Amino acid sequence: MTTPQTSEFIKRDNRKYAKSNGISRNCKALGFLPAFKDSVTGEIYLSRFADGSTAPIHMLDGMPDHWVIERDADDRVLKIRGSITAGFIRDGRYYSREELANAPLDS
Is 18 domain-assigned? Predict the structure, then answer.
């Protein structure tokens, strides 16, 4: 079993990929939408706000309930499954942050 993750993994990824296409602001114009993938089940979900609307960045509060391990008293997500990774979707395909960071993206 993998260790549960907190929002720190998103901050860590943002720092790691800051100067690449592996973050939302750098690949948004190319049609990539922030998403998450469970590496165990293969499930993929677009990043969403708590109200269910699509988020322009990676947000934990709109994750499916079965990915959430712990919430606070205000129903904000504190911990998620350790098998969840942040990435992007474009044209129905999931891309990891690392894939986008290492790919030349022209269109």
Answer: yes
